[in-house]
Amino acid sequence: MSDIKVGIIMGSQSDWPTMKEAAILLDELGVSFETKIVSAHRTPDRLWDYGKSAVDRGLQVIIAGAGGAAHLPGMMASKTRVPVVGVPIQTKALSGVDSLYSIVQMPKGFPVATMAIGAAGAANAGLMAAAILANTDPELAMRLEVWRDSLSASIADEPTDD
Ligand code: RP5
Question: Which atom of ligand 1 is nearest to the CA of 14?
Fold first, then answer.
């Protein structure tokens, strides 16, 4: 079993600028992760193998981003009991509403924890994965508390014109 706790997977290289936001957060919080391109449509065998081996490899959370007919998160959730956090990529044609609907409307029995569309959703996916892991990792829990407190402290009391 490897040390990697979180898998960040995405349907295409074109998803990486968005999914990078999850990686940045996990890096900041000291969570080990891997990144892979796994497409439900273009590399279905890769998807199957990834899902089949996820538990044995010690993955504890999978963050899956996809756009358009975004079947990757749901198909991954059907293949492994490892919790899947879905990130709808913002598309050009339909602004990511297509991705959101494709990811969020899972049938009863196979949930995907669906985040917001785009970069904020990807960053929150990283934070969600860290929060899940923090339940059994007190040091990570402390780092996450510090991160949250520092974000709160950075918010001004009053708006300015600048
Ligand atoms: C999806 O199709 C990917 O997740 C990506 O968001 C979208 C478009 O992929 P490319 O045509 O840019 O490779 O599978």
Answer: 12
pLDDT at 1: 67
CATH code of residue 105: 3.40.50.1970
On whether ipTM exceeds 0.85, the answer is yes
Within a domain: 160? no
Question: Which atom of ligand 1 is nearest to 15's Cα?
Answer: 6
In a domain, 159, yes or no: no
Burial of 18 (0-12, 13-18, 19+ CB in 10 A): buried
All residue ranges of the chain with pLDDT < 70 are 1
60 phi and psi, to 5 degrees?
-110, -20
Domains held by the chain: number: 1
CA distance 142 to 127: 13
Owning domain of residue 90? 6-153
In the structure, which protein residues have their CB atom closer than 6 angstroms to any atom of ligand 1?
Answer: 11-12, 14-15, 39, 41, 66-68, 89
Tell me whether residue 158 is in a domain. Answer: no
pLDDT digits (tens, 9 = 90+) for 84-114: 999 999 999 999 999 999 999 999 999 999 9
